[in-house]
């Protein structure tokens, strides 16, 4: 169950990071509220997952999901550039996450 909580925490990290971008420096109320709620949920689920997962594994997977998800959200929803270098960097992050998961 810890891995489910960790995955959900990672998804909420994508939500809060995307909403933070849309908040325009916390000047827009709705994206700011979404940022704060998703951040609290993400941290809470991460804390629950860390009850039984090692710190390094949990934190790396959480930030990895957030990084890859934020990259994808930026490309798909915000019109950010999709370049070969950025894709390779994202694949390296995925490789690190998979390697960390397999080492558990």
Structural write-up:
This protein has 104 residues and is mostly helical. It has one domain. Helix content is 83%, strand content 0%. The chain is built from four helices and no strands. Helix 1 packs antiparallel against helix 2. It starts with a helix and ends with a helix. The mean pLDDT is 95. This is Guanidinium exporter. One of its GO terms (molecular function) is transmembrane transporter activity. Belongs to the drug/metabolite transporter (DMT) superfamily. Small multidrug resistance (SMR) (TC 2.A.7.1) family. Gdx/SugE subfamily. One of its GO terms (cellular component) is plasma membrane. Keywords: Cell membrane, Membrane, Transmembrane, Transmembrane helix, Transport.
* First and last CA, distance: 15 Å
* Helix content, binned percent: over 70%
Reading the helices and strands in chain order gives: HHHH
**What's the mean pLDDT score?**
95
Q: What low-confidence regions span 5 or more consecutive residues with pLDDT below 50? A: none
Give the count of helical stretches.
Answer: 4
Number of domains: 1
Q: Strand content of the residues, in percent?
A: under 5%
What is the number of strand segments?
0
SSE inventory with pairings:
Layout: H1 2-22, H2 29-49, H3 55-78, H4 84-103
Helix pairs in contact: 1-2, 1-3, 3-4
Keywords: Cell membrane, Membrane, Transmembrane, Transmembrane helix, Transport
Protein name: Guanidinium exporter
Main location: membrane
